[in-house]
Amino acid sequence: MTDQSMAKTDRRRWAVAACAALVVAAIGDAGPEIVESRSLIAGYDGPGPLIYLGVAALVAAVRWRFLPLLAVVTGALFLLGGFSDASFVDRLGTPAEPVQFCAGWLQVAGFAAAVAFGVAAVWWHRPVPARTADPDERQDTDTEGPRR
């Protein structure tokens, strides 16, 4: 496997991790309503979880280098929206209802991870040593120093 294909594989792993984080956020968002109603369909409270799952499917299906930034934007916007809602912030601070409390933190963790993993998927760079005619002499001495 070449160094370039290994770098693409590493970027792909970060993108898949961002997708998994969005799925975790969707579980955190829809989970309390599903648990309370004991039904997947009756517990539907809005399009949020469907948006997260749609973005995750798009990032997973389309292999464009900058598409994981869509997961970053989604995570950042929904974090901003969540923290601007007083009822959501209260739910994070008081564990009076354990399902709501855990689901809120699961959602925040999922969005924060989606942001971090999406950025890593775009900016991941594995240093590739330069090739020279002499295999004992490498041109990547800036990062590793001279070879002895």
What is the count of helical runs? 6
* Biggest sheet architecture: none
Computed structural class: mainly alpha
- The averaged pLDDT comes out at 80
Q: Low-confidence parts, pLDDT < 50 over ≥5 residues?
A: none
Give the amount of beta strand, in percent.
under 5%
How many beta-strand elements?
0
Helix content: over 70%
What is the terminal separation in angstroms?
Answer: 26 Å
Gyration radius over CA:
21 Å
Shape: globular
User: Can you write the helix and strand succession as a string?
Assistant: HHHHHH
Short structural summary:
The protein is mostly helical and 148 residues long. 70% of the residues lie in helices and 0% in strands.
Task: Walk me through the topology.
Blueprint: H1 3-37, H2 48-61, H3 68-84, H4 86-93, H5 98-123, H6 141-144
Helix pairs in contact: 1-2, 1-3, 1-5, 2-3, 3-5, 4-5
Protein model, in words:
By secondary structure, the protein is mainly alpha-helical. It is built from six helices and no strands. It has helices at residues 3-37, 48-61, 68-84, 86-93, 98-123, 141-144. The model has no long low-confidence stretch (mean pLDDT 80).
